[in-house]
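Recap slide: SDR family NAD(P)-dependent oxidoreductase, sequence and predicted structure.
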Amino acid sequence: MDARVVALPLDITNPNAVAGAAATATDVDLVINNAGIAPAGDSITGPDEEARLIFETNFFGTLRVATAFAPILAANGGGTLLNVLSSSAWAPVPTVYAASKAAAWSATNALRLQLHGQGTQVVGLLVGMIDTPMSARWDVPKTAPASVVTQAYDGISDGALEVLADDETRQLRSLLGSPAEKSFPYLAEQLAFFTA
Ligand SMILES: NC(=O)c1ccc[n+]([C@@H]2O[C@H](COP(=O)([O-])OP(=O)(O)OC[C@H]3O[C@@H](n4cnc5c(N)ncnc54)[C@H](OP(=O)(O)O)[C@@H]3O)[C@@H](O)[C@H]2O)c1
């Protein structure tokens, strides 16, 4: 591994651990919020405790890391914060995971304005299925992780505010402008496998 790379243990649901990582990694100018969970059996009508666990990682954890590292990015010239989100933020996927990513998308947009004055580029990365352990239980087409990573870094260097890493995500983005009465029947058909 490159000698400049220092791996730190980090549980983003633990405020002390996040503060500790920020106290150590004071030289960073790029923060990528990649951590996320998508437990099997997750349902938007599932138990409260599971919903809180998912939000604790995907929403509060992401926001906690952004908040802890914002002053470090400022001190290092502004830098970049990239939050790994999901196209499920823009679709009627019946999971708490999707709701947590919608909340994280909103927070990403809010952070972009909040950190604008300090010169931080805040990027939302949205993508459908990526071929990782998280999506192993779904037998659907998936994007290669390397492609997502390449698009993310290209987006950062191009000054992008959003990186949409597959065709499905780009289509969902365009549907945001359509009335729900028009888009819902189409999306319900596309996403029927979630409730089958
Ligand atoms: N796979 C997909 O289809 C897909 C699609 C859209 C978006 N995404 C998003 O892409 C990101 C990466 O997911 P993935 O596909 O690589 O899933 P994954 O294979 O399940 O990996 C999840 C990663 O998040 C880390 N993590 C989970 N909870 C954490 C915590 N509390 N603190 C620190 N790290 C934690 C895990 O670390 P450990 O291994 O140490 O537990 C692991 O490195 C997530 O934000 C996910 O929502 C994935």
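The mean pLDDT is 96.
DSSP finds six helices and four strands in the chain.
(End of recap.)
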